Amino acid sequence: MKRSLVVKVTAGLDAPERCSQAFTVAAVAVAGGVDVSLWLTGESAWFGVPGRAAEFTLPEAAPLSDLLDAILAGGKVTVCTQCAARRGITGADVIEGVRIAGAQVFVQEAMADDAQALVY
């Protein structure tokens, strides 16, 4: 049985190390063949918008835009519905392949029999 990993990142530029760790774990899991779903909540919601990940820098860390591309190539990326609404982000604003969804979808993914969930 193939395992799945749901990663919820709540930090953005306000906590760059925590944000980078979440993206790194998700990208490494995708590279390892794990089914990954990365949830962008709080300030990380901005990274679902084109160009925002490229603005993120953290010394000694992989570029966030590269990590996001790797995750999108082999996993799912979701911006939280309420987080998007609070920031004026709509479906027309997000990167191709990024969806906007709410808590019900998160709970379904996190509670799947083969799922492991991490929150950063």
Automatic annotation (TrEMBL):
Taxonomy, superkingdom: Bacteria
Q: Tell me the InterPro entries matching this sequence.
A: DsrEFH-like (IPR027396), Sulphur_relay_DsrE/F-like (IPR003787)
Stated name of the protein = DsrE family protein
Q: Which organism is it from?
A: Yinghuangia soli
Lineage of this protein's species?
Answer: Bacteria, Bacillati, Actinomycetota, Actinomycetes, Kitasatosporales
